[in-house]
Specification:
With 249 residues, this protein is of the alpha/beta class. The chain is 33% helix and 18% strand. It has a 6-stranded parallel beta sheet with strand order 3-2-1-7-8-9, sandwiched between helices. The protein has a 3-stranded antiparallel beta sheet with strand order 5-4-6. The two termini are 18 Å apart. It binds adenosine-5-diphosphoribose. Adenosine-5-diphosphoribose is lined by residues 17-19, 22-23, 28-31, 34, 99, 117, 186-188, 190-191, 212-214, 216, 229-230.
């Protein structure tokens, strides 16, 4: 059995996609019953859609916020946060870059997290720019901020056609330049710039591993490809020592 991370004092970068949250009951985006099967991206996930119909967009995101708040992290999320703890306590470094906006990694105990596409649990004022934690699910739509301008609130999400938040890509790329291993979990490898990170790690000659239910579009970029569900494969493959002692998390 080849273990993904053999000793703790490593520099590890993990990137995840919606596949890791599937076992918590959160829909993925593409494939059978994916979110984009039932919703047109141009209607709900772009700045143009928001300008045209903020109520429709807010209904879409409040529905997803309710779902995320009603779900629990699964064994996959727990294995990633346990890996961070194991690596950082062992003298290593760890970064988790997630495309997911459901907040389940943080609820599973992950600490050093970059939410590349934002969060369902954060809102932003389009007038004063304030960004704040927001778990309310019964806003009168469209919601407005209590700042003097009474600005329209929007979900703090990176929509199609928008750039990632300042500094996030630079921080992730710098961690990849420095890492011993780059692990990709539960993503189809079709959405950029996140999908480009595997190319980047590959070009730098970094060791790469992928855990995914189906072979992602960029499967050839990985040294190790483990096909299976994250909630099953990650606990099994992440903890050699603990596994050997029979007390893997
Ligand atoms: N364990 C591991 N992988 C899984 C599991 C599972 N239990 N269930 C599904 N998968 C895999 C699928 O095989 C698929 O390759 O997760 C991947 C999900 O792919 P997508 O639906 O394309 O979602 P994702 O890659 O997260 O999308 C990227 O696109 O729509 C935008 O902003 C959105 O962040 C999202 C981005």
């Amino acid at each position: 059995m080849n273990w993904i991370v053999d000793t703790p004092e490593k520099k590890v970068v993990v990137m995840t996609g919606s596949g890791i949250s599937a076992e918590s009951g959160i829909q993925t985006f593409r494939g059978a019953n994916g979110l984009w099967e039932n919703h047109r991206i141009e209607d709900v996930a772009s700045p143009i859609a928001f300008r045209r119909d903020p109520v429709m967009v807010w209904n879409f995101y409040l529905q997803r916020r309710k779902q995320a708040l009603g779900c629990q992290p699964n064994a996959g999320h727990l294995a990633v946060s346990a890996l961070e703890k194991w690596v950082t306590e062992g003298g290593g470094e760890f970064l988790l870059a997630t495309q997911n906006v459901d907040g389940l990694h943080t609820r599973a105990g992950s600490r050093n997290v970059i939410e590349m596409h934002g969060s369902l649990l954060i809102s932003r004022c389009t007038a004063c720019g304030e960004v704040f934690q927001d778990e309310s699910v019964d806003w009168e739509l469209p919601p407005h901020h209590d700042c003097p301008q009474k600005g329209l609130l929007r979900p703090h999400i990176v929509w199609f056609g928008e750039s990632l938040f300042p500094g996030d890509m630079e921080n992730i790329e710098s961690a990849i330049r420095d890492c011993d291993i780059f692990i990709v979990i539960g993503t189809s490898g079709t959405v950029y710039p996140a999908a480009g990170l595997a190319h980047y790690a590959n070009r730098l000659g970094k060791r790469t591993a992928c855990v995914n239910k189906d072979a992602p579009a960029n499967v050839d970029l990985f040294d190790t490809f483990i096909q299976g569900e994250a909630g099953t494969e990650l606990p099994r493959r992440l903890f050699p020592e603990k596994r050997a002692k029979g007390n893997a998390p």
